[in-house]
């Protein structure tokens, strides 16, 4: 789409000349002779750029500029004048002009300035869009759950987000520790600053030190240039260190110094760098136990453990599973550009009975998998991964998948269900028929007769 340009100048020759040349270059151009006419026109039509003379009849260029910004802050304004002074340029810039060009000028010079302004507008719009997306991603609305443990965590985030205190998040893998850390940052006064993330898992001392504090050129083999560390990159914002339980013991003292003194040196450097950063840590194990085992420094633990958030596993918040399932169905239906399907009650029951060793992350992957295989706008048990359907993590009810059937043979279904029950009992009792009979609550002779009748040796 061509950029729309409004030219405002009381000199007719200038208007005609610019309109002809800019139209030839592919711009959509409108010209007017006064600020009053232009303001009336702009209230009914949007322009990407307004190129205005500084001296206009009636309302001058600076006042016109202020009025344009009242109508649309996003409209780019370039001021042109034959009376180029530093003072007028500074005044124009202070009042929102993007650029300033002195008459006489070539059309090429004006086009170059317009293209530069359009590129800048596009870049800033993209940054704003990405910032909005990120803040939406980490917003509290994305923390799904109405169970008591999750409501308590949401209340805690609300309280501590505005504080500068260090936070320790504890929870199993896949429980959403990064999401909680992001919610704390993006609801704090540091939300416009950087949010830098680093997993400390499986990084040796040398690599981790360089990642955290940066290094100078030549500090070690392969250090071909100076590199900023995560702390330096997060200055003015927050740093999220995941898997802090994996930090080597010899590195922990350097991290402690940053927390205490707010300063550090790059690897191979001598200059001390000060940093203004909020630390949010996460661990998949109980750090207190590591302290007892002398695998984690006690003084560092207490520095990190100012406020602790203990994230429950998905097994501990079963009531949240339907909410999470619906959230992921909506999310991936939009991403896959498909109609949002329903989920059968049998399938939902199975998901609520599963053990979820991978927690919320595993549930998200299962829902995405199910959407790929959904048919007739319905997610059934058959859409789930085989590993989940066969897992011992599913206990309690024996599943009967009748969703896609319109009619059944009652006796046939009962017989099939009895087979499932006996096979389940066989597995639970390791083939011991006495134990099987106890599990099924029937006499052993009855069990044996049923196995013969159903032709089952299991």
TrEMBL record:
Keyword Lyase tagged: no
Protein name: Response regulator
Keyword vocabulary terms for this entry: ATP-binding, Nucleotide-binding, Phosphoprotein, Transcription, Transcription regulation, Two-component regulatory system
GO molecular function, one term: sequence-specific DNA binding
Keyword Phosphoprotein tagged: yes
Domain (Response regulatory) ranges: 4-118
GO biological process, one term: phosphorelay signal transduction system
Residues the record lists as 4-aspartylphosphate modifications: 53
Domain Sigma-54 factor interaction as annotated: residue spans: 143-372
């Amino acid at each position: 789409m061509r950029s729309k340009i409004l030219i405002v100048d009381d000199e007719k020759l200038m208007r005609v000349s610019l309109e002809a040349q800019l139209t030839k270059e592919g711009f959509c151009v409108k010209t007017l002779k006064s600020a009053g006419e232009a303001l009336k026109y702009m209230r009914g039509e949007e322009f990407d750029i307004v190129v205005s003379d500084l001296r206009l009849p009636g309302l001058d260029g600076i006042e016109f500029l202020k009025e344009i910004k009242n109508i649309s802050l996003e409209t780019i304004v370039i001021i042109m004048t034959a009376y180029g002074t530093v003072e007028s340029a500074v005044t124009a810039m202070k009042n929102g002009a993007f650029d300033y060009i002195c008459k006489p000028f070539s059309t090429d010079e004006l086009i170059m300035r317009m293209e530069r302004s359009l590129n800048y507008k596009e870049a800033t719009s993209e940054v704003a869009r990405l910032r909005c997306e990120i803040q939406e991603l980490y917003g509290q609305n994305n923390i799904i759950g109405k169970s008591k443990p999750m409501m308590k965590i949401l209340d805690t985030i609300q309280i501590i987000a505005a504080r500068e205190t260090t936070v320790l998040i504890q929870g199993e893998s896949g429980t959403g520790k990064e999401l909680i850390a992001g919610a704390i940052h993006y609801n704090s006064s540091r939300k416009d600053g950087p949010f830098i993330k680093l997993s400390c898992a499986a990084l040796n001392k040398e690599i981790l030190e360089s990642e955290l504090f940066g290094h100078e050129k030549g500090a070690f083999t392969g250090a071909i240039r100076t590199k900023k560390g995560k702390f330096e990159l997060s200055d003015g914002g927050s740093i999220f260190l995941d898997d802090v339980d994996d930090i080597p013991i010899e590195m922990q003292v350097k991290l402690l110094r940053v927390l205490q003194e707010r300063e550090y040196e790059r690897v191979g450097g001598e200059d001390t760098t000060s940093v203004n950063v909020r630390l949010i840590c996460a661990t998949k194990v109980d750090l207190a136990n590591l302290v007892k085992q002398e695998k984690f420094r006690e003084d560092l633990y207490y520095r990190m453990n100012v406020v602790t958030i203990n994230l429950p596993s998905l097994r501990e918040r079963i009531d949240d599973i339907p909410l999470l399932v619906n959230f992921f169905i909506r999310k991936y239906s939009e991403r896959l550009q498909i109609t949002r399907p329903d989920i059968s009650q049998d399938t939902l029951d199975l998901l609520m009975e599963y053990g979820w060793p991978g927690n919320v992350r595993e549930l998200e992957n299962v829902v995405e998998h199910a959407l790929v295989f959904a048919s007739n706008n319905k997610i059934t048990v058959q859409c789930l991964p085989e590993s989940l359907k066969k897992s011992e993590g599913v206990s309690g009810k024996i599943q009967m998948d009748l969703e896609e059937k319109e009619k059944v043979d009652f006796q046939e279904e009962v017989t099939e269900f009895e087979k499932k029950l006996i096979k389940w009992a066989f597995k639970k009792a390791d083939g011991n028929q006495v134990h099987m009979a106890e599990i099924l609550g029937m006499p052993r002779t009855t069990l044996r007769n049923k196995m013969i009748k159903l032709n089952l040796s299991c």
